[in-house]
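Re: the request from the purification team.
They wanted to know what the chain is likely to look like in 3D before they choose a buffer screen. I agreed to run a prediction and write the result into the notebook, where they can find it.
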Amino acid sequence: MADADTTTKRPSLEELRAVLQTVQDPELRMSIVDLGLVYGIYIDEQGVVTIDLTLTSPACPIGPMIQGQAYHLLTQMDGVEDVEVNLVWDPPWDPKTMASDEVKLMLGIW
């Protein structure tokens, strides 16, 4: 059975990012990827995905909802065995430097 695990196709970082693109901050109604909240996406040979993400503020009450949605969507992908969603606070989120140009325009940041 170990041989079957080594031949399992793992999703690419681009495929993982595309799934995370569908996770929205419910208050801003924008993608967590476009907002710049996703700091890192990693997948190991065993199919364990680790995501480092932050929130718009440390007191954000919807953090667990965003974590849960990311976890749920990624665990549904073929080749993903488990997901670990880490909340990180360094560097602090700054929409002026971390958000996409589209989000900056929508938020009126220029």
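For the purification team: The chain has five helices and five strands.
Please add any questions underneath this entry.
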